[in-house]
Amino acid sequence: MLQLDSLALVSMGSFLLLFAVTVLAAPRRDRTGAARLELAALLAGTLLAYAAAALPVFLAGWALTVWPSWRGQSRGARLVLAASTVLLAGGAALMSHPPVAFVALAAAVLLRKGIFPFHRATLGAFERMPLPAVGLTLNSHLGGYLLIRFVIPRFPALSAEWLPHLSILALVTSVFMALAALGERQPRRLLGLLWISQGSFILAGLATNSQAGITGALMQWWVVAFAMTGMMSVYASLEARTSSVRSPDEFLGLAAHAPRLGVFFTICGLALVGLPGTLGFVAEDLLFHGALEAHPLLGVALPVATALNAISVLRLLATLFMGRRAIHVPPVPDALPRERLALSLAVGLLIFGGLMPALLIALRTPSAEALTKAISGK
Amino acid sequence: MMETLLLAIVATPGVTFLALGFCWLAGWTPTERFVSRVTAVAFSLLTAGAAWLAWLMFAAGVVSVRISLGEWFRAGGYHFPLALQVDRLSLPMVAITAVLGGLAGSFSVRYVHRDPGFFRFFLLLNLFAFGAITAFTAGSFDLLIGGWELVGVTSVLLIAFFGDRPAPARNAVRVFASYRIADIGILLASFVLHHGGSTLFTPMLPGDWPGQGSRLAAPDALLAGFLLLTAASGKSAQGPFAGWLPRAMEGPTPSSSIFYGAISIHLGAYLLLRFEPVIQSAPPVAWATVIVGALTALTGTASHRVSSDVKTSLAYASMTQVGVIFVEIGLGYPRLALWHIVGHAVVRTLQLLRAPSMLHDYHKMHAAVGGDLRPTGQWMPAVLPMGPRMWLYRFGLEGGFYDAWLDRLVIAPVLRLARALSGRSKDAPA
Prior knowledge:
Number of helices of chain A: 16
Distance between the termini of chain B: 55 Å
Structural class of chain B: mainly alpha
Number of strands of chain B: 2
Order of helices and strands of chain A: HHHHHHHHHHHHHHHH
Strand order of the largest sheet of chain B: 1-2
Number of domains of chain B: 2
Order of helices and strands of chain B: HHEEHHHHHHHHHHHHHHHHH
Number of strands of chain A: 0
Strand content of chain A: under 5%
Distance between the termini of chain A: 28 Å
Helix content of chain A: over 70%
Largest interface: A-B, 65 and 57 residues
Number of helices of chain B: 19
Oligomer: heterodimer
Number of domains of chain A: 1
Largest sheet of chain A: none
């Protein structure tokens, strides 16, 4: 039923840290009443899914994490959420028919990760849901975990044959979303587009068939999780302080009053797009060089999408924090002590991973080796 | 001893940046005097270290020092080598970074005195020095990319330094976009260099600078050369990337002097000099370097002569000189190019630092020559008729129409596509 190996323990540990960061940094409005129950469900569901040794247990955890996303979503988004769960259940039930089960599980992964053309549900979640809940739902990367824990080990031959095709879809998504982000002005949607674009590299990296690429994908998992959580936490804090940030049509100049929030946002944003000295640089480097051996398209798509995303990150940073403070924007308080602690944890991990990446890579090496062996059939 | 000294030189600005940064994040904002003194000590140590290293190398008759610090990380068959090297190319660059960086820092103490961003300025100055020295002393292409990116990020954050106007923020985004697009070239070049064998400079470029060889196969050299030229053009404001340099003048004058008069602007030329054997082994790349440099130099000089504000004029003058340096590299004169870089960096830093006193300086010079300080270009009416002269004036004023072309042919279609993809045609950014 449950399996607490290195993959599960490392994933659970990092998720607990992510949960602590998210809850500590969350505005009070997102930590009361029903929101608290939803966060607890997300924690329980994700930990259960990480510890699952069998697909039905994983399905239970997955379903538990879908529940908080259900409220307030559009009909289309609910359809995607329901479809991903049904496909996962179908795949679990049809394990004796490998091709069918593989297709169902792979489709569940694509839906969960918001891969094009299923990205609208993810964007909807960013637009409508409280950001702490969105962050925990998406940054658990249960779609990627499903691939690593169940799909690749159970169907190595099918994975070796079909993962490259899925990864092309992921790369198209990445560039497509990065381009769309250039034209987006609403911060919540922009954050959603950045999450999908940078998160797509996890799926693409898993298909590189090289240990460097797969390790890069697992590092990218942490980069997206912690950098996006940092950015989303800062944005949620600003949104709780002033509604002017929801749809800014000019530079808001918030750095004058909230310089520390600005710095946390800058570091997380630049880490997301591979700033040297952060874990993002390491993940990008590994993904990039991993692609050399098996997947040259990734080698071209990665720098293009990352460059476009970097422009979007700086544009959002400039809109929120730079320029003269607009007249209609009240002076907002800077990071509170609990926010400072939470964001320091996220930034600390990103910088620690950037300066001493070997320690974090060692935590993921057993999983990367096992996946490389499974895909290459050695 | 030389190895330890080299490590200390690279570490000094990095440690200063981290120490000041953590103090601030922990809630303590040091006083102006403390920050400026710490920075002055760091740059003094850097200068002394560079001078000492140069002396040790000279005394021992050594032309290059190389250190292998093992690997930073490894995954399967791939590892990121941590290697540093200092030779006749990188040592002068490290020296001018230390000396001119310290000089700019010392000017800045008064320039940004009581500015709310005083601490931020010095923090970024230290990070910039760390990035630049890492790039110059990198023994592998991967490490060079790390330093290269840090220089780019600090440059952009300093362009957006003054928060009381929207223009710095807008221009910072534009400059960052130019950097990132050009940097695709350096990342793809890394891809090609890995394919060619190793990204460590020692096996890739055997021998000592400037007489190094290249072990890259001809097709790899051609492709890598063009990609490196793209990246170098982006960083040094050459060819189609020239438009960002005048925009970068929004930053504080001391940072403009060190970035766009001295170090950052020459980083692209340094990259080409480091890979000069690769460029010379691929003649089309060498000729492209000459053409890009020459065209930019002509445009730069036309714009420099008609610019109405001193910083923009000096920016175009920098662009012109770097264009000439590109020509020298393309023609195969690496020593001349290095001397040109050092000389240009020193003169331009002085000019930019003195820019706020330009009128005063002009009046002094005017008086010194007895009121007979004639403007340049008086021969023009005798050589060129009115029509071409007006066109040339307009050409210079518009910065060679680079930005207009870029806006029309690249940015507008990309933004149209982006707006269509995001489904947000009404509220898309300008």
